[in-house]
Amino acid sequence: LNEAASGTWRLLMHKGSNDSQRTFVMWLIPDSTRIRYRISGVTNTSIGGDGNINLPVESWSHVACVKEGMNLRLYVNGALDTEVLLPEAGVGNTGPLRINKNGIHTPSQASFDDLEIFGVALEAEEIAGLAASSDDADTDGDGLSDYLEAILGTDPMLP
């Protein structure tokens, strides 16, 4: 994540052709770096939850959203952040998947790596395994991740 709280909703990703198609959507909450995650229901176009964990700025985070039956879960760095019981069934859509920008919401200043969408609900252990395999490498061992050094314009190969 490359930005702190900004006072406005910032889009992470949205699948749908318009704002009433939200299967699925994730934003950063205006006063924080927590995630709001939603899907469209049969009668309500916005059902879901809000994360409790603030994503650290200028650092990689592993985020997973899982819908299994009537449960919608948000995981951050392999751990369950929040879970909601959906009040109604979700509905899909054939709209495009848009990352950071959809022409409706303010874009976030987030970078994405290893974005995957699965056709099945992953178990908590599988998500923890994916998060553990994420690479926050510090090639030169100076205490700054290679990612942060790239942002700062320093050389991740020189201590």
TrEMBL record:
Q: Which SUPFAM superfamilies match?
A: Concanavalin A-like lectins/glucanases
Instruction: Indicate where this protein is primarily found.
Output: secreted
Which of UniProt's keywords are assigned here? Calcium, Secreted, Signal
Family annotation (Pfam families):
Laminin_G_3, TSP3_bac
InterPro entries found in the cross-reference section:
ConA-like_dom_sf, TSP3_bac
**Taxonomic source organism:** uncultured Rhodopirellula sp
Q: Give the subcellular location.
A: Secreted
Protein's name according to its UniProt entry: CAZy families GH10 protein
Instruction: State the taxonomy lineage.
Output: Bacteria, Pseudomonadati, Planctomycetota, Planctomycetia, Pirellulales
